[in-house]
Every structure is written in C-alpha cells, then in structure tokens.
C-alpha cells in the first residue's frame, strides 16, 4: 500500500506543465518562448499574441526538444490560450521609447493585461501568473484587483517579474568585483522603476568592499539599467534578450516549486505585508502552490534604509493608480 503522502509526492514528480506566453510574437516573447521550449519541466508551450504568432510557433516546433508547441492569435483566442495553464507569463504590451517613463505605459498596458487576467480568471484560475509588462509597480496591483472582483485572488500565485534587476545587479557587481556574475548573490527588493529598485549591496555575496562612492554609482546603474538599454536601442524598444533570460530563470524557479523540487530563492513583486505598502519585492521561496515563504526584508544599513523610505513613497502612488484603474473598469 502506498501511503497518501508518498502518493501525492509521486503524482507531483510526474506532473507535466503547460506554460502560456502572452505577447509571444514580441521582443521578449520570442526569445522567452525559445528558452521555455528548451526547459525540461515544460511539456506544452502555448503562444498567444494579437499579431501573427503561428510563424513563431512553427519555427519553435522544429527545435529538437520534447515540448509540444501550440499557438493562438487575437483576443477571440485568448481563452483557449490560457485554458488549463499551470503558468501564464504576460509579456504583452507596449515598451518604452527614449524620454518616456514606465508609468507612461500604464493606460495602454493596463487594458492589454486586464484582458489576459479576465481570461485567466475564467479559464485557468489555478495558474501562476507572472507579469512582465510595465509598469510592473502598478500593473500587478491592478491585476490583483481584477482577480479579487472574481473572488479568485490568491497572493501566492501573482508575481511582478523583477528578476532583470537581480540579473543586472549580479552582472554589474560581478564585473566590478571581477567575479563571475553567476557566483554573485544580491537581493534586489522594492519595485521595478528607478528609485523603487533597491539593490541591497550590504548583503552581497561575495562581500562588496569598495567605498560608498562606488556603491552609489552601482546602485544608480542598476536602478537605471532599463534606461541604458532604451537609450542604446534609439527608439526600437527596451530590454528584450536580457529580460527573456531573466523571465525564463524566474519561470524555472516557479516550475521547480510546482513540481515540489527545491527551487532557488528569487525576489519578485508580490502582495506583501513586509512594509507599509501592499505590494513589494522581497526574496521568496516557491512550492506547489506558488509562494511558500516570503523571507521579508534583508538586513539594511542606514543608506539602504534611506533608500527604502524613498521607494515606499513611489510605490504607494503606483499601487494606488493600479487599484483605481481596476475599480473604474
Ligand atoms: N519586467 C521587466 O523587467 C521588463 C523588462 C523589459 C520589458 N518589460 C515590458 O515588457 C513589455 C513587452 O516588451 P517587448 O519589448 O516584448 O514589447 P514588444 O512590442 O516587442 O512585444 C509586445 C508584444 O505584445 C503583443 N500584444 C500587444 N497587445 C496584446 C494583447 N492584447 N494580447 C496579446 N498580445 C498583445 C504585441 O503584438 C507584441 O508582439 C513592455 O511593457 C515592456 O516595458 C518589462
Ligand atoms: O526599461 C524598460 O522600460 C524595460 C524594463 O523595465 C527594463 O528594466 O529594462
């Protein structure tokens, strides 16, 4: 006789995952879909876009992995695209041009993401939802409000993807300290825009030993990493390849958790009671139901504490914008 616990562990080990990428024909969507096609935890990869995505699916379907690829196009096929998904990654929406802030994308992207959220609520209510679309700081609270309206909001399952801030912090600190970025670990908490991005360099491993001037320059570069790419692309969009790398890393951690395997701790922007604002990124552990543990604030020194005060003000405003949008629609 197999006991209940052993049986459920075996079931978990055998689980196959259906991952849907919304915005799959886009700058992030395409390379992210390629990385998911190469992920051993994925069995079915579903691509959705308002633009023609059948070509991307045909192309990916020739990649020699066991992942089965499907595609759906347009608003009328959104429901089919998300149906029974275990994980939906939303990359649909408009990207910044030089001189724009992420907040300026809110109106148009809120409409795009709310369409996806309504479909998920109806057809994939147990899915984990990872939102890449900007402005993450406002879009995630908005998405939560739409889910609350359907009585389907589960704070363990909704994520704003901030992994690119971690990836940048690891890269810039690694380069500076002459260490392989893959060996650098540094929490980046708060949100995903300017001052709300808080790299906690006091907790960096290996230890950062340089002076305050160097530390402040690194913090600024991490906070403004997005602008660096937007400027260099000269009007042709924002970070896509590094973001695909980052969101695939985050998705892999979520899938490992779903599978009941040990998943790496990642920071993400989630519903939170860690600070006085209701959404905040901190280090998280994942399990079969999404967030298993929120590790809360890492220790902060005085400089980081001052940064936190500033970040909270910016976040509060964005959270209100997101909630107000959902309440009026
Ligand atoms: N969280 C982060 O760290 C991060 C990093 C980089 C970019 N972003 C954001 O990700 C978003 C996408 O960036 P991108 O460079 O891939 O843009 P993109 O314009 O290259 O691609 C967006 C895709 O979304 C599709 N789309 C638009 N409306 C849709 C809808 N209603 N349903 C389905 N698909 C729809 C478009 O057809 C397009 O293919 C932007 O909002 C950008 O600011 C976030
Ligand atoms: O900067 C942007 O607009 C895209 C993204 O949020 C980034 O950080 O690269």
UniProtKB/TrEMBL annotation:
Keyword Transit peptide: no
Assigned EC number: 1.1.1.37
Keywords: NAD, Oxidoreductase, Tricarboxylic acid cycle
Annotated positions binding substrate: 96, 102, 134, 168
GO molecular function terms listed in the Swiss-Prot or TrEMBL record: L-malate dehydrogenase (NAD+) activity
CC terms in the record's Gene Ontology section: mitochondrion
Residues reported in the UniProt entry to bind NAD(+): 23-29, 49, 109, 132-134, 243
Name used for this protein in its record: Malate dehydrogenase
Species per Swiss-Prot/TrEMBL record: Drosophila albomicans
């Amino acid at each position: 006789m197999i006991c209940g616990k052993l049986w459920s562990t075996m079931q978990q080990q055998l689980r196959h995952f259906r991952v849907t990428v919304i915005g799959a024909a886009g700058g992030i969507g395409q390379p992210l879909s390629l990385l998911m096609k190469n992920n051993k935890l994925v069995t079915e990869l579903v691509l959705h876009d308002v633009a023609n995505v059948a070509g991307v699916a045909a192309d990916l379907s020739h990649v020699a992995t066991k992942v089965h690829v499907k595609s759906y196009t347009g608003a009328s096929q959104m429901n089919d695209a998300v149906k029974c998904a275990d994980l939906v990654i939303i990359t649909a929406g408009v990207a910044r041009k030089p001189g724009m802030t992420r907040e300026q994308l809110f109106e148009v992207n809120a409409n795009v993401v709310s369409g996806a959220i309504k479909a998920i609520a109806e057809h994939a209510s147990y899915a984990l939802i990872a939102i890449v679309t900007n402005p993450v700081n406002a879009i995630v609270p908005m998405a939560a409000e739409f889910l609350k309206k359907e009585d389907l909001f589960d704070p363990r399952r909704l994520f704003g993807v901030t992994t690119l801030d971690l990836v940048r912090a690891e890269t810039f600190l690694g380069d500076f300290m002459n260490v392989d970025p893959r060996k650098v670990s540094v929490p980046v908490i708060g949100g995903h825009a300017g001052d709300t991005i808080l790299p906690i360099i006091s907790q960096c491993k290996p230890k950062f030993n340089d002076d305050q001037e160097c530390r402040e320059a690194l913090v600024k570069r991490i906070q403004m990493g997005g602008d660096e790419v937007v400027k260099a692309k000269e009007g042709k969009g924002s970070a896509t390849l590094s973001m695909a790398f980052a969101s695939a890393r985050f998705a892999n951690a979520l899938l490992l958790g779903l599978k009941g395997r040990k998943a790496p701790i990642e920071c993400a922007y989630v519903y939170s009671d860690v600070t006085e604002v209701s959404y905040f990124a901190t280090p998280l552990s994942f399990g079969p139901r999404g967030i298993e543990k929120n590790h809360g604030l890492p220790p902060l020194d005085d400089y980081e504490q001052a940064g936190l005060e500033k970040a909270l003000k910016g976040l509060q405003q964005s959270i209100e914008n997101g909630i107000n949008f959902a309440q009026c629609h």
